[in-house]
Design goal:
25% strand; six-stranded antiparallel sheet; single chain; 163 residues; 17% helix
């Protein structure tokens, strides 16, 4: 069984919605920092567009256990299904995988040593860092800032993407 099929089966088994094998391509959204500042709280703007980090343990999303979808707090692009979330014990919402094609990565040298950071593929908003110490099936830990996400419970429509 291929990894994508396995994840779709896993998500469906835990009550999530299985993603299509090939999600719609993400069209980048171009907004100026000035525009984002008017749309977001100062704390969210700092995390998403100045690559700040919230205090560990401060996000209510750490305790979120319902079935649903985690979307980018800036443009509302779905990034994670709840079946991908797990408790990493780090103090930030953590996921073992991301919806395919929804993030872009680059190397971050802010702490001298290289780390892989990931951003929303649509708006470029900083989400967090990905590490190779996560659980099966991927072995990855997407360590996300809670301020960079919104949660949409299953059964509620996903919000319209911001343009």
């Amino acid at each position: 069984m291929q990894r994508r099929q396995f994840l779709a089966t896993l998500i469906a088994a835990f009550g999530g919605s299985a993603m299509a094998a090939t999600p719609d391509p993400v069209v980048p959204l171009k907004k100026s920092h000035k525009e984002w500042k008017t749309l977001l709280s100062p704390e969210r703007y700092a995390v998403l567009f100045e690559e700040d980090t919230e205090r560990p343990g401060s996000s209510p999303l750490n305790r979120e256990k319902r079935t649903g979808t985690f979307v980018c707090a800036a443009c509302l692009l779905p990034l994670f299904e709840s079946a991908m979330k797990y408790d990493s014990g780090t103090g930030w919402p953590s996921f073992f995988d991301v919806i395919p094609g929804r993030t872009i990565t680059r190397t971050d040298y802010k702490l001298i040593y290289p780390r892989k950071e990931y951003h929303c593929a649509r708006c470029g908003g900083h989400q967090g860092h990905v590490f190779d110490d996560g659980p099966a099936p991927t072995g990855l830990r997407y360590c996300n800032n809670g301020l960079a996400l919104e949660f949409v419970p299953a059964g509620q429509p996903l919000p319209a993407l911001k343009t």
